[in-house]
Amino acid sequence: VIKSKHLLAAAGLVLSSGLVLAADALGAAQKQPLNMTAIAMFFVFVASTLGITYWAASRTKSTADFYTAGGGITGFQNGLAIAGDYMSAATLLGLSAMTFAKGLDGFIYAISFFVGWPVILFLMAERLRNLGKFTFADIASYRLDQSQIRTFAAIGSLTVVCFYLIVQMVGAGQLIKLLFGLDYPVAVGVVGVLMVVYVTFGGMIATTWVQIIKAVLMLFGGTALLFLALGQFGFSLETMASKAVAVHKDGLKIMGPGSLMADPITAVSLSMGLVFGTAGLPHIMMRFFTVPNAKEARKSVFVASGCIGYFFMVVCVLGLAAITIVGTNPEFFEGGNTAGKLLGGGNMPVMHLAKALGGNLFLGFMSAVAFATILAVVSGLALAGASAIAHDLYARVIRKGTATEAEEMRVSRLATLALGVVAVVLGIMFEKQNVAFLVGLTFGIAASANFPVLILSMYWKGLTTRGALLGGLAGLVSAVTFVILSKAVWVVVLGNEAPIFPYEQPALFSMPLAFFFTWLFSVTDKSARAGREIAAYDDQYVRSQTGIGAAAASAH
Amino acid sequence: MSSHLYQKVRANPRFAELAGKRSRFALLLSAIVLMSYYAMMMLVAFAPEALRTPIAEGATLTIGVPIGAAIIIGSWLLTGWFVSRANGEFDQINAELIREASK
Question: What is the ipTM of this complex?
Fold first, then answer.
């Protein structure tokens, strides 16, 4: 039970910015005194990103500009933006905190969050780019029933976007309260307003640049901290490790796998949810439509996975360094007791490390980076949600393709505004709630409802509308049911004695269900429509392989 | 885009060659990445002692550290290999296919 609690907290804290703050330290995230350095640095970031938004607004004329920056982002830029989207504040705080507390287990987690990327490149990047235009529903509905599949895909996207937004908002509120000393509702409101401004005015162009700037700041900050930390140990990882082992309460044990991964089913289910859930996140998939062709799409994954892999390794070394530098310094503990609780909660080792090695200035810089990170992630989510509403539901399903560009743009901006309001309201409502279950739900739905439909529509000729709908529904319902019956909801939220479903991440069970029912209801579908859909695969296959007929970059 | 063009491309034997080569390569690399990752996870679950072996006599660092780093760095290098082949060799066949089909 203890183990699964840790696993849940760990998954939560890494998956979502500052989630842990909500999960492990509700109430422990006390308001800190106003941190002026951090606020000043944050203002510099906000001012420059608003400048970029102003510039981007003048270039955002068509729906293609709004959703995908007109396909005019280079592979390298997109790679940085993907990294910016994926390296959340939680990877910085959560992975380092895990290494700080558990040693090698933190590193094993980091690897689990990384390995999905090479697979996305090998199996998906090219086909995503060649078949899609604005949203992943474009691909899923390419040869299937437009209205039905688009509606299903849009609902899948919106569910993931809304849950993930709540998680981000709650995490953001707690984190900002802690780092900047702002009130929780103020923090959530600031994040919501900035998100709406970036997206409604600057669309994908502004969002991309916010993500790029943030990725560069994060890589720079992490690397600077790495050098400062290594300098304390004569640039020897061995010295760092031996000193850490000498002072850590678990001693030499931290250099091997610990309790976190002891249960293989939990570990495999979690890793499946992470790997395939990542490949089913609408805001991540959307990034593949911002580049001009498959060539650039591939390059962008190469750049992104290089940045992500490098950063994860850096963050784990920082966690190891913090064991000695932060873990033995009474200044960073409540009441000066190094056996007690860390100031600000269990997620703070890397922030304390920044203060110990670079003083208040560096702490302010890292805090501003963490805030910027949240903004970059929520902006991407808002844009993905707006595209599902305006492009899929409004333009394609309701108006059946008769909406003008101007009408669709207006709806997408209104949708962004609505998502901003929803995010702020839910963020405030969920302040005192334990939102850890939303992480399991988000990745469970992405892996079990979005991913199977998407991958089968690209790879399996026999897929029909009926199979995709019923199979996707099976994945959606089973993922939601398993999460409700798991400890995070059944015990923690609903107050029952013991969970009915013993694991946190449903993917190992709900994904096979989705695939099985998709297969079953496709092969038994003998309708004329199914026949046409299967026949249409051959042309789709040629386009997915060659890019002939793929949406091209708009001229700027 | 006309179905006729797609049919022409599909009829070209080089299309099957391209699709086959690239898919096999992509599947091979995916298998390498996923198998090395899940092999490590199996060690973690069933033989954690193996990963606690020190990297050298008297060292504190265990082989878990270089193995983990090797998975990250190795699979990143594989992405580089895939990109260079796909953007070079495969895209060249692709360009020829499109040229021949639009004649």
Answer: 0.94
